[in-house]
TrEMBL record:
Residues 15-62 form the Putative Flp pilus-assembly TadG-like N-terminal domain. This is Putative Flp pilus-assembly TadG-like N-terminal domain-containing protein. It comes from Sphingomonas alpina.
Amino acid sequence: MKNLAMKRLVRDQSGGVGMIAAAALPMILGFAAFAVDIGSATLETRRLQGLADAAALAAAADPQQAQALAQASVAESGWPRAVTVVATRGDYTRDAAVAPGARFTPSSSATDAVRVSLQTPSPTYFARIFGQRSIPIARTATAARERLAAFSVGSRLAALNGGLLNSYLSALTGSSLSLSVMDYNSLAGADVDLFATLDALRTTASLNALTYQDVLDARVTRSQLLNALANALDGSNASAAGAMRTMATQVSGGSISLNTLIDPGTFGSQASGGRGLVKVNSMAFVSTVLQLAAPSRQVALDLGASVAGLVSTKVWIAIGERPAQSPWIAISDNGTPIIRTAQARIYTEVQVGNLSLPVVGNLVAIKLPLFVELASAEARLSGIDCSTQASRGVTIEAKPNPGQAAIAAVNNTSQLADFQHPVTLSNAKIVDTLLIDVEGRAGLNLGQSEPWQTLRFDNAAITAATPKTVSSGSAVQSVAASLVSNVDLTPVIIGLPLPLGGLLSAVGSQLTILAPLVDGLLNTVTGALGVHYGQADVRVTGMRCGMASLVA
């Protein structure tokens, strides 16, 4: 009987559910605590991120007061629980080559970025049964003020010679230019707004470009670009606009893409904005873009007797390729890109005649061949100060262009365009007669290993787009005069020995008279190329200290 009762009890399952439920209740509550409380904490964390974003933006508006502004922003939010606020000032580098987590560098003296960290408890509900009343949550946000500077490197056109410029630009473009000196003066004295030009280019070239980078990437004709420049000059300089339109009608064919010359920075992805930030000298713009669009980078000019004081003037000019990722104009907030001028080689042969020299007599000619080679000048952004209105400014580091100059003959001028190899130079035959020749040779180093030099542009210099110059330690203002003062003259005698001291002295004197004429010629040529021996002109044409934005 007892055994039968036990068997029935074992088979009876009517009370099993209640027992199982009672045993599983702690586990069910634990899962509920996990699901509900973790979900609540996740929602609270998202809300806290919004609070951190707002606090970072508030603090970055005035980094000097970062901690107070961040705390005030959190207090104004009405967050129901205590929040620990830590605001850290620093520098933020907008450089895609730097890992996002490494772009913010803490610095107690920084004035452009703030990182705000918030920590607060998130309340629990089911977890309270197990004694866990809250879960700590934390979020971080970084905000930085927009800082931009627009700068360029090149050389001013110090001297104007309408005949030489017409000959050079005509040879460069395969056209026939006939602008007056007044036209060139108008272009050299006028700055044009870069973004206004790009806006106008959309119309003159019938572009469907959405962004400024699209405009820069598009292939446009030279005349379309020159007409866009003229449109951008309308209203600010009528004479320069007229000269530009005249040039547009005289320069036909040829196409160009501006993306190798201009780095628009953050404006590349924008379809508008930027006007007033970048100003470019009109003459420098024309010369540079026509060089880039030229079918050949080497031109030979025979100016005849058009240069005052000379009976014959020949000039060979070769322009080297710009290094990759080295624009001429840049908008940046850090040390990239490095902008550069073009490489250049210039060879001139000038001659004066009808001279009377001892020993060799009257009607003698003196010819002076001169070779100049210039590497690229460089500039990069070093810093932008947006801390106060009084201290606003931009710091640029620049290097002048190293190179060489020589009184020497280039027997094969086709070598000039080969920038991968040195040009072969030989002694210059300065006097060439049947009986006696006078040869000469002189060399000048324009600086080989130049350090970066610092240039500071205050608000006034930026507003006026005032250029500042860096010079190499061996830079000279008058290359020809410096070479002539050190030339080694050697007589080459055919026949009997003759007293030649007076001849060499007379030749040296004539070269001294000739040197300033050659220097004037070189100044015009190098100015048209946007380079100068042993020097670089840098301009900062605009800066912006904008509103703070979230960066990480």
